[in-house]
Write a structure and sequence with these properties.
Helix content: 10-25%
Order of helices and strands: EEHHEEHHEEEE
Structural class: alpha+beta
Distance between the termini: 8 Å
Strand order of the largest sheet: 1-8-3-5-6
Shape: elongated
Radius of gyration: 17 Å
Length: 149
């Protein structure tokens, strides 16, 4: 019987180094079962951290991810010399720039679901952007809402 449902699924991303990473397959593999019965709906991914981000962007040319990371590093500089650029520096020189970049890019994305599949554009993929030097296990809360088949 069709009807609108809401489900939530806590996900853990693999540990990624600093940079921009395509995670579409990580997300779809972890959510294949709950997505398959959604005729029309919405997947909302919320990253439960303040020093990384999520985005929808180019999924084909990996140079785009490298250019994005390089560009963000130029826009939000790190105080490696310890000149006191930021007041918040107790967790390392990469921490405050990571918070700024997270605010600029954002902590969530929403993607339409059509017939059990993510309705991404031809060149779109889900990105995870790690802004800290150390590897971390990042948590994502996935909310699926939609009409079941």
């Amino acid at each position: 019987m069709p009807g609108t449902t809401y489900t939530q699924h806590p996900l853990t991303l693999p540990s990624y180094p600093r940079g921009s990473h395509l995670i579409t397959s990580d997300i779809t593999s972890q959510l294949s079962t709950p997505l398959k019965d959604v005729k029309v709906g919405l997947l909302h991914l919320f990253l439960q951290h303040t020093s990384c981000a999520m985005s929808l962007n180019e999924n084909w040319d990996s140079d785009v991810r490298k250019d994005m990371s390089d560009s963000l590093d130029k826009i939000v500089v790190e105080d490696k010399a310890g000149k006191g650029i930021y007041r918040h520096d107790a967790e390392g020189s990469d921490d405050m720039p990571a918070h700024i970049k997270s605010s600029l890019i954002g902590a969530s994305v929403s993607i339409p679901i059509t017939d059990g599949k993510l309705a991404l554009g031809t060149w779109q993929g889900i990105w995870f952007l790690e802004f800290r030097d150390g590897k971390h296990r990042r948590k994502v809360l996935a909310t699926i809402q939609g009409e079941r088949a």
